[in-house]
Amino acid sequence: MAKHEFQTEVGQLLQLMTHSLYSNKEIFIRELVSNASDAIDKLEYLKLTDEKLKGIESTPQINIKIDEEDNSLTIVDNGIGMNEADLIASIGTIAKSGTKSFMENLTGDAKKDSNLIGQFGVGFYSVFMVADKVDVISKKAGEEQGFKWSSDGSGSFDLSPCVKEEHGTVIYIKLKEEEISEFVSKPRVETIVKKYSNHIAYPIFLIFDEEVTEELSEEDKKAGKEPKKSMENKREQANEATALWSQPKAKLKAEDYNEFYKTISHDSTDPMAYVHTRAEGVSEYTTLFYIPAIAPMDMYRVDYQPGVKLYVKKVFITDDEKELLPTYLRFVRGIIDSQDLPLNVSREILQENKIMANIKQSSVKKVLSEIKKLAKDEEKYKEFTAQYNRPLKEGVYQDHVNKDAILELVRYKSTNDTENMTSLAAYKDRADTEQKAIYYIIGDDEKVLRNSPLLESYKKNNIEVLILDDKEIDEVITPGIGSYKDWDLKDITSCEAPKTEQTEEEKKEVEEKFKSIVEKITGVLGAEVKEVKTTNRLSDSPSCVVKDANDPMAQMAQMMKAMGQEVPESAPILEINPDHEIVKALNGCSDDTMIENISWLLLDQAKMSEGMEIKDTVAFTKRLNTVMAKAF
């Protein structure tokens, strides 16, 4: 027997489990049964596709033994099983989908934390909420040697070879004393199985001892004999064991759909929405998709776990294929069951197969249609956009076929409303009849954007501007939209100010009047600015910085950002407000030192107003102090 230490994160996790941080302890049965079902799924597939395993004969089933004398539960499956390496990888080290991330997401709220257990691939460890000791005895199909894994959850586990006749896994759970009364109970375990696992596709049998009273004859009854009592071993099926998605929709209730969702997603909350479709004709398939109420915790991880399982004629094929739905819909959970795909379908075939391409295209339209239905309920859609607005934006960039449909679903913050988000359609409906563009501003901080000097002329002219404060994605995706229903989308940091009443003659007159000071500021700032010019876009602020929309380097930078490359910072255009007292005073100033200080302050404060960093904060402070001292 060899003793192994758990990986550090797993050891920390077990400490939490052992000390019952979670309130919803019953979910350990859901997690172990779900794991057992997955193990059978994998074997059933391999029995059809792997030459070495085609000769295996077994009837898929899961048994749960309730032992009142031993105060234990034992969960047995005849699935694929595990060898020594599998046991170490699966329950000795950090889980694939992120035990470490699970730890980082703990909130201290027992109910919320219990909902995270399955999402992070740590479902097996939930058994230590109720167990003093756990033994896992497993034998991998097609191999001769069995192995026994044992732990009390205190930081280490024992692993040794053992004798096991059949392939599959046995999980023996020695219950904590305080958990015996709840879980060594046939009615309680049966209720849990029906609640969480009723639609597991394989039969789940409860094995238990039941007291049986002997039937007495009439003579014995008259003679006053006492009937003998004995314990008899019973076996009852606890679940329906039919694939829910294959049943008629008319037969299913919302509770059925919700409980099946919890089984496949390891989520303890009901989904936000679901859509169940059966297609017949040229291609036959069934899909059942769910939108979780809360976004999966690994949604923005590169190694996110896909949420859709693929079946062929109810035979499980894969749950690890990211090609089943586009990446912007990676939050969707559910199943696809095709009648036409080959059982030995490979990843390459999935990517090139016309049947799969049609299923994928249809599935995307079904999911987007369901999201559109959600959008009819304003309050419900607020919940949706709070979770999934960003991935939908990715879809605008990724999915050219459905771009227009996705654009209708994306929501934006706006100067029109500080509380609610808006659609592009609503923006267009509110706009002045003379307006022919949708304006936006992009940055990292909503507060900074809402107070940007660049908005002054738009506010003055009562023109709504979209506030895009997720710079990392908005800067890549929004310029690529181009237009919406013949209205161009324009970045206010690089387009002309709207609705000016200034004539060309008046504009030239202002430029001539301030030509000398513009040249002096340009000379002071040098390469730190691309250009200095007067502007009519400001009303309250003395200056602002903007981008050059016609700069080919700026367009190249946009392409580089779209490809995920680092982009060198380009010099901005500094615009000064000729109607502001500071600029007026500066225009008549003959003090070169003061001109230099004010020039730098105009640039630095304009950058700060846009949330940009200034290169030399010490110099900024000195200049500010010098100017304030002069003013006094």
Describe this structure in words.
Residues 93-99 have low confidence and may be disordered. β4 (131-139) and β5 (146-151) form a beta hairpin. α12 (378-398) packs antiparallel against α13. The chain folds into four domains: 2-213 and 230-237, 2-Layer Sandwich (Heat Shock Protein 90), CATH 3.30.565.10; 244-374, 2-Layer Sandwich (Ribosomal Protein S5, domain 2); 411-491, Rossmann fold (3-Layer(aba) Sandwich), CATH 3.40.50.11260; 504-631, Four Helix Bundle (Hemerythrin (Met), subunit A). Helices cover 38% and strands 21% of the residues. The protein has 23 helices and 23 strands. Strands 1-6-5-4-7-3-2-8-9 form a nine-stranded mixed sheet. Strands 16-15-18-17-20-19 form a six-stranded mixed sheet. It is of the alpha+beta class and 632 residues long. The protein is elongated and about 125 Å long.
Q: In angstroms, what separates the terminal alpha carbons?
A: 84 Å
Reading off the top of the CATH hierarchy, the class of the largest domain is best stated as Alpha Beta
The beta-strand count equals 23
What is the correct CATH architecture of the largest domain?
2-Layer Sandwich
Major beta sheet, strand line-up: 1-6-5-4-7-3-2-8-9
Low-confidence segments: 93-99
Structural class: alpha+beta
Name given to the CATH homologous superfamily of the largest domain: Histidine kinase-like ATPase, C-terminal domain
Average predicted confidence as pLDDT: 87
CATH topology of the largest domain: Heat Shock Protein 90
Shape call: elongated
Largest β sheet strand count, sense and barrel closure: 9 strands, mixed
* Helix proportion: 25-40%
Count of domain modules: 4
The radius of gyration over CA amounts to: 33 Å
Q: Count of helical segments?
A: 23
